[in-house]
Amino acid sequence: TWKWVVGPMFLYLCERLVRFWRSQQKVVITKVVIHPFKTIELQMMKKGFKMEVGQYIFVKCPAVSKLEWHPFTLTSAPEEDYFSIHVRIVGDWTEGLFNACGCDKQEFQEAWKLPKIAVDGPFGTASEDVFSYETVMLVGAGIGVTPFASVLKSVWYKYCHDATNLKLKKIYFYWLCRDTHAFEWFADLLQSLEAQMQERNNAEFLSYNIYLTGWDESQATHFVVHHEEEKDVITGLKQKTLYGRPNWENEFKTIAGQHPGSRIGVFLCGPEGLADTLNKQSISNSDADPRGVHFIFNKENF
Predict the structure, then answer these.
(1) Is the same domain home to 108 and 148?
(2) Where does the FAD-binding FR-type domain lie (predicted)?
(3) C-alpha to C-alpha distances, 90 to 9, 11, 125, 265, nearest whole angstrom
(4) Is residue 16 part of a domain?
């Protein structure tokens, strides 16, 4: 038995030593941005740090807890000179980080007062393959929208610098959330992308649908009253917010009809139940003929 145990234990110890060494490297918080509804953005720099879209890191703040490591998806793009995470304040540890960064104070915080941060990673996810397809469907549910912030930023940087070498030609983005107010920072990103794509006369590059799943009677009435306005009253985007949940069978059939003979990447960051639904739709809407349309499903659960 010991022959089978020693090898894996040796590899495990090596991996722990590498993680310990990486976590000891100096991390500098360059900027703390407070977003609405108790969401903060930490922009950081670390020597030798290299990332790809959709990856995540583990973060430790010794001022809050000397032992706890928490995973956060990177929301910055590889083209930016920093890496960032968005943290929503929903528990004791995130509340402690919020206070340690001085976000509970009204006055301006000096950089030297910011807490020390240890970072381990980045670690890869399925979202890294998004640039391997000409057409992709991105589906984010709730906080699962964060990896697609990195993807959409990177797409924009690549599009601006050399669009001819960009294999990706069409993005269908679906965002399912109970309350968009918690993720206003992401709506701001979509607004910026929407405006810039229109300036370059390529508004068709990004098609997005926002579904508000946790709505009540007053919201529905408000929606009906303001439906004819140019911009959505909830997000400020030209695309109107939809209520309820998407009809995935219709969505897949429509996209399959618009892109015959294509390999379409389906990327999800969301719960297991939604993953099962999208996986079944990807299989049922793919052609048996190798020359037909094929949906390739990739998931990241939380």
Answers:
(1) no
(2) 19-129
(3) 36, 36, 24, 32
(4) no
Rounded to two decimals, what is the model's pTM?
0.76
Is position 13 within any domain?
A: no
Residue 269, token pair as written in the block: 């960051």
Can you read off the two tokens belonging to residue 151?
């993807």
- We report the CATH number of the domain holding residue 66 as 2.40.30.10
Nearest residue to 166 (alpha-carbon basis) of 254, 53, 278: 53
User: What CATH number has the domain bearing residue 164?
Assistant: 3.40.50.80
Q: Per-residue confidence of the chain (302 residues) as pLDDT tens digits?
A: 888 899 999 999 998 888 888 778 888 888 888 877 778 888 898 888 888 888 888 998 888 888 888 988 888 888 888 898 888 888 889 888 888 888 777 777 676 778 888 888 788 877 778 888 888 888 888 777 788 888 888 877 777 776 667 777 888 888 887 766 656 777 777 777 777 777 777 667 778 888 877 665 455 555 555 455 555 544 455 556 677 788 888 888 888 888 888 888 888 888 888 889 889 988 888 888 878 888 888 887 65
3-state secondary structure 44-89: EEECCCCCCCCCEEEEECCCCCCCCCEEEEECCCCCCCCEEEEEEC
Query: What is the sign of the dihedral through the CA atoms of 42, 106, 182 and 142?
Result: positive
78, 143: one domain: no
Pair (140, 263) in one structural domain: yes
Q: Which domain holds residue 108?
A: 24-123
